[in-house]
Amino acid sequence: MSTEVVRDVVSVTGELVATRRAGAYHHLTFVAPGIAELARPGQFVALSVGGPTSAHLLRRCFSIHQVTPSGTYGGTVDVVISAVGPGTEWITALRPHDTTSIIGPLGRPFPLPVQPVPCVLVGGGYGSAPLFWLAERLRERGCRVEMVLGAATESRLFGVVDARRSADAVTVCTDDGSLGHQGWVSDVLGDVITRSGSQVVYACGPMGMLESVTTIAQERGAVAQVAVEEAMACGVGVCMTCVMPVRGADGATRMVRSCVEGPVFRGDRVRWDAFSGGLCAVPEDAVGAAGMRAH
Amino acid sequence: MAHLTDSPAGSAGMDDQQSEGQVGRQVDLRVDIGNGRAPVVLPNPLMTASGCAANGPELHRFFDVAELGAFVTKSVMREPRSGRGTPRMAETPSGMLNSIGLQGPGIAAFVEKDLAWLAERGARVLVSIAGGSATEFAEVAGTLAVSPHFSSVVGVEVNISCPNVANRGQVFACDPGASARVMTLVREALPRDTPIIAKLSPDVTDIVHVAAACLKAGATGLTMINTTLGMVIDLDRMRPQVAGVTGGLSGPAVRPIAVRAIWQVTSAMRDGRLPTAPIIGVGGVRSGRDALELIAAGATAVQVGTATFNDPLAAVRVRDELAAELGTRGYASVRDAVGAAHPR
What we know:
The structure holds two protein chains of two kinds. Chain A is an alpha/beta fold. Chain A contains seven helices and 18 strands. The longest helix of chain A is centred in the C-terminal third of the chain and has 13 residues, at 207-219. Chain B is built from nine helices and 16 strands.
């Protein structure tokens, strides 16, 4: 297993040691030395597809579900994958002892509160993957943690059993009512924030859900920290494809890379108004938008 | 460019590197991308490709950017640019389509921040510039020339695959006259011996014709090839997949196009139809073998672009693989392999 360790990120050959179905998803465990020691909740890994001569050049990025720094085989990394295209299908078809290249940890983690404040963690579909690990970190700091998990249907929820262990209270929502409350996480989130007195809402899931979570959190005086899912080609900040409009501390909107400046952003900094129908436009007031109009 | 002239003077001075007594012969990887009068010697022929490596810090987490023959920066224009909306890319067979829109900080912020960072790391920088008019190219080059870190600049790569505002947005690279005007003005804006490398588009009827126009007007070298225009349709949305509708196709899928373009221009140079000038090959290089293929077609140096998205270490890995490929074939230096596939 070759390792090229450089400061805060490693590029390693990951060996699959366990794979199991989790409802509609696949839960994979890789031995990936060096990543577990560096990773924090909210960060992600970039997996290559198809080996060194693959026709699929672009890496697939997955939020880290959990890490174990020193297991039987060395440090491991777990990811949860929804097989929806040729890349994710190849990765989820790997069998134990198969290998693929893994780079990580990448991106900025969820910022943790300094004070032991109550928090709500919201996961849409397999977007819940990083939240259990986050919940443990928050509870270690004395934070009370509630979780809200939502999906279209029961099989598309991830980690309901884990949630009952990781959180002080759990609310489950499904669009079809197959488990828990029938409806969206946004139907119940406001009450959960108010009842728990939460000051921070962490969320990971589809963009539409993250926008709703941000709005509801703001209405209830809580800060939303959202981990976005943007299509990435490299995951390391060089391809410029995963950009989205985000306001900086100076109030100016910039097209920032979600891989290096995210994937976690303060929800109220994201320009949700720019997203529509699977596209994201450059807001007219964004830095450099005038330069685009010139030519 | 003082530190470059520390290399053995003149190209003849590079011809006598001895084996270091290691296993097998050590291949001399040094190359000269200068204009023929003033050598600009790089320790090896491997470079990043513009727009595939950002401006340094991102890849420096994986390897020392000073290890490269040169670091090629993302094309910079006069003003800051937000780039286009998303989606900006689509994966394609053995490649990808991208439509970024030349996102960047503008030349003033570039020289102050990005170039300063690269200079501090001791990187040799090939600065890619772009413009919407020949004057804008020249202004960008002029700002670069007066920057305090210009000594780290080993050359200027002129990205003429961008729309010419004055000609209804036709790209400069498809118009030999417009390309020549850009080279003339950039030449005037830079010190006499700074290499000016025109980056050509393969999307032309006769690439030799465009190469001739650029070299005649002041370019001292050529980079081939830029991406080729492509398009992907998202059948779920039943719309073009990238927000910019069309995009540049890159990756191993386009490598034969790069080999062909380098071959055609090199043939013209060997026939005396074009002045001899160094060619930097780029297009689908993923391995040392791929790099050697471009070199055998006539490239003096090689850039690694899309492969970096697959492997952030690709450029330095390709350098080491290239040395091994050359050694296996009995080449004492990479220069001996340049154009080796052409008839003697």
